[in-house]
Design goal:
- By secondary structure, this protein is of the alpha+beta class.
- Helices cover about 50% and strands about 20% of the residues.
- Strands 1, 2, 3, 4 and 5 form a 5-stranded antiparallel sheet that branches.
Length: about 140
């Protein structure tokens, strides 16, 4: 009689162990799906941040080659509307531009929602093309 009672306890223990393993795997899978859904929801903000940073690169090119702006060794391209040198494109989309190393390098950062993207532009590479991009 004792033998069959022990078999019942072992079966109950193995069912609990397998159930907990399945529950843990389902929890981890649900968490991974949740993270992917959050990334998908932020795809629009990420794209807006990329385009805002690209607008900053365009602004740096315009200021250097059309307006002749170079500033100091490390200077920000200023905005008349915003004293903190942050340009606002839309309600939640902004960019900031920094010229460094005597105008040989420009850094642009775009921000939209919780997403931020940044580009670096080396002017030396553009100037090697001659008159194609620079008059």
């Amino acid at each position: 009689m004792k033998r069959s009672a022990e078999k019942g306890q072992l079966m109950l223990l193995s069912v609990l162990l397998i159930s907990s393993a399945v529950l843990g795997a389902a929890t981890i899978a649900g968490l991974l799906v949740l993270f992917q859904l959050r990334q998908t929801a932020d795809a629009e903000a990420s794209a807006q941040a990329v385009f805002a940073s690209d607008a900053g690169v365009e602004r740096a090119l315009y200021e250097k080659y059309r307006n002749g702006y170079c500033g100091d060794a490390n200077s920000q391209i200023s905005s008349v509307e915003d004293p903190q040198d942050i340009f606002t494109i839309a309600d939640d989309v902004q960019y900031k531009v920094l010229l460094e190393e005597e105008c040989t390098l420009a850094k642009s950062a775009g921000l939209s929602g919780r997403s931020a993207r940044a580009f670096i532009l080396y002017f030396g590479g553009i100037e090697n093309f001659g008159g194609q991009f620079v008059e």
